[in-house]
């Protein structure tokens, strides 16, 4: 029946290419959509009969570009996927909706490669339904309402397919499309990269070539750092990994040689991999963010333009419907969900920093929809924690550069391997000296210099038994690789002042002259210098740092100690391209949102010296004991001040005594001087 539906739908869409039943300019739009579907049908046929896989790499590259060419930057200005162009050609109202329809239809690329024929049926039938509406002569307002109705019922009716399958793909290792490619391909034959259906750029190809040229012991070392960090996360937190059976692997294509070795390492721990694609449907995506494996991002502006497409159908009834699907799916797969140990991530960095163009034509959430979306994310996280308990799971994350980072890519890559494998014991001793000083403080005063306007007081938890308790965690390269930070959850009351950084790159978006004000640990104001209009700057931060929350708490304060990473970034001129994972170790950083211990605050955690870390809660997270919906924000964004923008970091005791940790970008506390050694070679 699924195949019959497909043939009927594909056949009907083929007819659109020559029909005259829809008036211009919509006729041209639907003909282009029909042409896109025709191309997908051709690829589907070739995959089914095996001829696609047999093609040479040049031919596969041509096919890959054809599948994504309409959204690549050089074609995007005249693509219906671009809301601005769609509105220009099709008119206000129609343009936004039909641009959304095309964007949703583009998810069919992934479904073709994964042979999800039912998904193709659903999408193609939606296209036909909308096309049929344009064959009828009805007033614009009435037709727009009809189109919205069809989209709403598409979202509501098929939520149980898309959302439920998405959950199963994240917990069930038998859903093994990507894992099969990783484990069973000849990784020296780079044609394997074109089997995923993701966009493949020179970054993925050159990454795979570079890894193929590395000695086996280096690949094994990279895999070992990644998997040992994961295992150590469980050991350090006192969580029982033996109860688990599944690890969720997230990475960017090109890294398969390391991932294969990692899967073998995880198998020795009793863990099977789930490797699920980053979501491609509006029904399962979270804005423009990536969560899973993916290839090159064909066009970040395209993703950003469609980050709020859910506004077309998001209402209370839909939210309740989707939450019901999520709850039911987890309940039906309760045993399997309980085996999930958490994600293990390999991130990539080095692309040109991206600042999006703010467009008037894009679909936006209303204030009411923003509130509904926040309620949904809150309830969803509660459901997930019910079946994949936060106090039983962990994670790890490590990052490597892409070739786009510059001409010295191979040299940078080797340096990052070195940084990711620094001696944790050395840092453990030095960081303990910092912690011993910090534990004496009532608050920490951070003061910017060299044009940095930071002037912030961070209030610390009080120790009842300093011989057995500590405020800061000594981070030694387990869940967060590389080594190099001490961190805490601040006391919100009394935490106040201004955080400023001249330039920072967060979640693939660049911010210039970012400034955030705090009172009692909560954000009270914010701005940046990305756009001419202040309203656009505030909206940018509200959408992408506050994630549409009216305010966020300061969930973490940390001091990064990885001066080796800092010097490497300066050496290659890649400071603004460093991922937050490494950048947060290159100076003090401040996370807005949830604490580092969200959903596992009651798990007892100890530093290597045996002291228990007691600063895991704040005045917001503790609300979980009364109303869990008020305790978490489902976001945690780290913002780092680089050493060169620091005037001073000092611990202030109850008696008013000042213990200076850093002065003019250098560590001055006795026992930490070794951290300045790499800084002596800065610029060399």
Write the layout of secondary structure elements.
Blueprint: H1 2-16, H2 26-49, H3 51-54, H4 57-68, H5 73-76, H6 83-90, H7 94-105, H8 108-113, H9 117-134, H10 140-171, H11 177-184, H12 202-212, H13 216-237, E1 246-250, H14 256-268, E2 272-274, H15 300-305, H16 316-332, H17 334-338, E3 340-349, H18 367-387, E4 396-401, H19 409-420, H20 424-438, E5 443-448, E6 455-459, E7 469-470, E8 473-475, E9 485-488, E10 491-506, E11 509-519, E12 522-527, H21 534-544, E13 554-560, H22 563-572, H23 580-583, E14 588-593, E15 612-613, E16 636-640, E17 646-652, E18 658-663, E19 666-667, H24 677-680
Parallel strand pairs: 1-2, 1-3, 3-4, 7-15
Antiparallel strand pairs: 5-6, 5-17, 6-10, 8-9, 9-13, 10-11, 11-12, 13-14, 14-16, 17-18, 18-19
Q: What is the compact description of this entry?
A:
The protein has 684 residues and is an alpha+beta fold. The chain has 24 helices and 19 strands. Helix 10 runs parallel beside helix 16 (316-332) and helix 13 crosses helix 14.
> How many DSSP E strands?
19
Helix content: 40-55%
Q: Can you give the mean pLDDT?
A: 95
Number of DSSP helical runs: 24
Cα gyration radius (Å): 26 Å
Beta-strand portion reads 15-25%
Largest sheet: spatial strand order? 12-11-10-6-5-17-18-19
The termini sit apart by: 67 Å
Low-confidence parts:
none
The rough form would be described as globular
Structural class: alpha+beta
Question: How many structural domains?
Answer: 3
Largest sheet: 8 strands, antiparallel
């Amino acid at each position: 029946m699924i195949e019959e539906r497909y043939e009927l739908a594909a056949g009907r869409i083929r007819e659109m290419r020559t029909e005259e039943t829809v008036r211009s300019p919509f006729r041209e739009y639907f003909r282009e959509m029909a042409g896109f579907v025709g191309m997908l049908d051709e690829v589907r046929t070739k995959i089914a009969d095996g001829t696609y896989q047999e093609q040479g790499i040049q031919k596969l590259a041509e096919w890959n570009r054809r599948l994504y060419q309409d959204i690549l930057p050089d074609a995007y200005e005249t693509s219906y996927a671009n809301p601005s162009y769609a509105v220009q050609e099709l008119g206000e109202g129609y343009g936004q909706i039909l641009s959304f329809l095309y964007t949703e239809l583009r998810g069919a690329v992934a479904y073709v490669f994964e042979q999800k024929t039912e998904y193709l049926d659903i999408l193609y039938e939606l296209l036909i339904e909308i096309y049929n509406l344009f064959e009828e002569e009805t007033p614009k307002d009435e037709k727009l309402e009809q189109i919205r109705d069809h989209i709403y019922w598409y979202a509501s009716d098929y939520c149980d397919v898309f959302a439920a399958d998405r959950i199963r793909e994240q917990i069930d290792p038998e859903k093994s499309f990507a894992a099969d490619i990783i484990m069973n391909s000849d990784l020296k034959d780079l044609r394997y990269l074109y089997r995923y259906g993701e966009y493949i750029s020179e970054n993925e190809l050159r990454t795979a070539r570079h890894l193929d040229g590395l000695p086996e012991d280096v690949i094994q070392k990279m895999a070992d750092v990644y998997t040992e960090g994961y295992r150590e996360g469980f050991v350090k937190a006192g969580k029982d990994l033996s109860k688990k059976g599944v690890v969720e692997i997230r990475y960017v294509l090109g890294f398969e040689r390391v991932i294969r070795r990692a899967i073998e390492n995880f198998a020795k721990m009793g863990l099977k991999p789930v490797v699920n694609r980053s979501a491609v449907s509006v029904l399962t995506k979270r804005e423009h963010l990536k969560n899973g494996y993916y290839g090159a991002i064909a066009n970040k502006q395209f993703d950003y333009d469609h980050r709020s497409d859910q506004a077309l159908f998001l209402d209370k009834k839909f939210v309740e419907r989707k939450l019901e699907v999520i709850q039911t799916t987890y309940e039906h797969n309760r045993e399997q969900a309980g085996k999930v140990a958490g994600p293990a991530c390999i991130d990539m960095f080095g692309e040109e920093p991206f600042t999006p163009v703010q467009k008037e034509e894009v679909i936006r959430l209303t204030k009411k929809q923003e509130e509904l979306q926040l309620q949904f994310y809150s309830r969803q996280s509660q459901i997930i924690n019910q079946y994949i308990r936060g106090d039983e799971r962990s994670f790890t994350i490590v990052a490597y550069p892409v070739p786009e980072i510059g001409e010295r890519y191979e040299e940078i890559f080797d340096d990052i391997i070195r940084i990711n494998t620094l001696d944790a014991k050395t840092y453990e001793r030095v960081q303990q000296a910092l912690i011993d000083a910090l534990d004496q403080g009532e608050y920490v005063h951070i003061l910017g210099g060299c044009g940095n306007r930071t002037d912030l007081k961070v209030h610390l938890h009080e120790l009842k038994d300093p011989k057995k308790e500590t405020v800061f965690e000594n981070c030694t390269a387990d869940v967060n690789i590389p080594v190099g930070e001490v961190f805490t959850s601040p006391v919100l009351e009394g935490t106040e002042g201004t955080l400023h950084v001249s330039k920072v790159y967060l979640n693939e978006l660049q911010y210039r002259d970012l400034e955030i004000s705090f009172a009692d640990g909560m954000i009270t104001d914010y701005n940046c210098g990305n756009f001419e209009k202040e309203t656009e700057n505030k909206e940018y931060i509200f959408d992408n740092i506050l994630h549409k929350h009216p305010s966020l708490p300061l969930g973490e304060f940390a001091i990064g100690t990885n001066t080796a990473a800092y010097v490497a970034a300066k050496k290659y001129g890649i400071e603004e391209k460093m991922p937050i994972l490494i950048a947060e170790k290159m100076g003090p950083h401040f996370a807005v949102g949830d604490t580092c211990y969200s959903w596992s605050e009651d798990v007892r955690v100890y530093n290597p010296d045996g002291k228990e870390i007691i600063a895991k809660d704040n005045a917001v997270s503790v609300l979980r004991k009364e109303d869990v919906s008020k305790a978490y924000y489902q976001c945690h964004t780290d913002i780092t001040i680089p050493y060169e923008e620091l005037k001073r970091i000092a611990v202030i005791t109850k008696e008013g005594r000042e213990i200076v940790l850093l002065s003019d970008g250098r560590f001055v506390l006795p026992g930490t001087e070794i951290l300045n050694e790499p800084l002596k070679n800065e610029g060399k």
